[in-house]
């Protein structure tokens, strides 16, 4: 158990809908990272927040947005969903703001299926 | 920009045999390199990382990797495979603390199967 929790575990929805994925980092960790893992694209970095502020952006679509709240939990919002958005979405957390030097601890993921 | 290539999407080895998973990187700045493992229905777990110190890096569960700049490689090895090593392994690269290049870029993964 990494200490990172993600809810829900599974999500099934229809095209055009909007969903929210939630992540609670390990106690004491200030950074939250979001990743997407799909068969087509592999594992891709989406976005990083550090202590409530956006720190780094990766291959995140404009239809997707994220935020980190004062209690440090984070939400990833996916809107106007398409079939291709079906994937496993991971959240990771680390103590500091440096993605490379701080060990990232991954949650178990949320499996999103868009029908 | 950084990228990694993992050679072999599937590797099978016999229990007790040497495990060798290959990773080659490309980076415009001195790289930081990582190996992660993903067990079924779980998130990724860091096995080891290279951050410009010793070129031979030892990780958890008996794994190690050697950074070879001349070959742009960071192959993962374990002398003797255990059944519990069956999982998917991901190599990743980062530009380290070089601002704007910090994010981790992952390879496509290698699924390791252990034959009893």
Descriptive overview:
- The complex is a heterodimer of chains A (115) and B (116).
- With 115 residues, chain A is mainly β.
- Chain A is built from no helices and 11 strands.
- Chain A has strands at residues 5-7, 10-13, 19-24, 31-38, 42-50, 53-57, 64-68, 74-78, 87-94, 105-106, 110-114.
- In chain A, the strands form 2 sheets. In chain A, strands 2, 4, 5, 6, 9, 10 and 11 form a 7-stranded mixed β-sheet that branches.
- In chain A, a hairpin with a 3-residue loop joins β4 and β5 (42-50).
- Chain A starts with a strand and ends with a strand.
- Chain B has 116 residues and is mainly β.
- In chain B, strands 2, 4, 5, 9, 10 and 11 form a 6-stranded mixed β-sheet that branches. Chain B has a 5-stranded antiparallel β-sheet with strand order 1-3-8-7-6, with no helix packed on it.
- Chain B has no helices and 11 strands.
- Chain B is globular.
- In chain B, β6 and β7 (64-68) form a beta hairpin.
- The N and C termini of chain B lie far apart (41 Å).
Quick take:
The complex is a heterodimer of chains A (115) and B (116). Chain A is mainly β. Chain A is built from no helices and 11 strands.
Write the layout of secondary structure elements.
The complex is a heterodimer of chains A (115) and B (116).
Chain A: E1 5-7, E2 10-13, E3 19-24, E4 31-38, E5 42-50, E6 53-57, E7 64-68, E8 74-78, E9 87-94, E10 105-106, E11 110-114
Parallel strand pairs in A: 2-11
Antiparallel strand pairs in A: 1-3, 3-8, 4-5, 4-9, 5-6, 7-8, 9-10, 9-11
Chain B: E1 2-7, E2 10-14, E3 19-27, E4 32-38, E5 44-50, E6 56-58, E7 64-68, E8 73-78, E9 87-94, E10 105-106, E11 110-115
Parallel strand pairs in B: 2-11
Antiparallel strand pairs in B: 1-3, 3-8, 4-5, 4-9, 6-7, 7-8, 9-10, 9-11
């Amino acid at each position: 158990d990494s200490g990172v929790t993600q809810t829900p575990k599974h999500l099934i929805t229809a095209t055009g809908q909007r969903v929210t994925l939630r992540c609670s980092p390990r106690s004491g960790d200030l950074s939250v990272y979001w990743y997407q893992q799909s068969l087509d694209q592999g594992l891709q970095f989406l976005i990083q927040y550090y202590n409530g502020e956006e720190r780094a952006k990766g291959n995140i679509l404009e239809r997707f947005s994220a935020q980190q709240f004062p209690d440090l939990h984070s939400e990833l919002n996916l809107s106007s969903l398409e079939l291709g958005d079906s994937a496993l979405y991971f959240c990771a957390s680390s103590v500091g703001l440096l993605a490379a030097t701080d060990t990232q601890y991954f949650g178990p993921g949320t499996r999103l299926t868009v029908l | 920009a950084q990228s990694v290539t993992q050679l072999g999407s599937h590797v099978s080895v016999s229990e007790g045999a040497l495990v060798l998973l290959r990773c080659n990187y490309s980076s415009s700045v001195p790289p930081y390199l990582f190996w992660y493992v993903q067990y079924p229905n779980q998130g990724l777990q860091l096995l080891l990382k290279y951050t410009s110190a010793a070129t031979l890096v030892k990780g958890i569960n008996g794994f190690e990797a050697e950074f070879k700049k001349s070959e742009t490689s960071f192959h993962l090895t374990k002398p003797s495979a255990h059944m519990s090593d069956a999982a998917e392994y991901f190599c990743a690269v980062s530009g380290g603390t070089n601002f704007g290049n910090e994010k981790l870029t992952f390879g496509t993964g290698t699924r390791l199967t252990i034959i009893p």
